[in-house]
Amino acid sequence: MQSDNSGGVISRRMAFKAALLGAAASAVAMQPYAAAAATESKEDPGVVPAPLPKQKAQKEGLLDVGDGHSIWYFDTGGDGEAIVLLHAGTGSGAVWGYQQPVFADAGYRVIGYSRRGRLNSKLGDPEKPGTGSEDLLKLIDHLGLKKIHLVGTAAGGMVATDFTVSHEDRVQSLVLVNTIVGVTNDDYRAIYKLIYPEGFDDLAGDFKELSPSYRHLDPQGHAAWLELEHKAKIGEMKGQGYANKVVWDHLAAWKLPVLVMTGDADLYTPPSMMRIQHSRIPGAEKFVVPECGHSAYWERPEIFNRVVLDFVKRNGATR
Question: Does residue 37 sit within a domain?
Answer without folding.
Answer: no
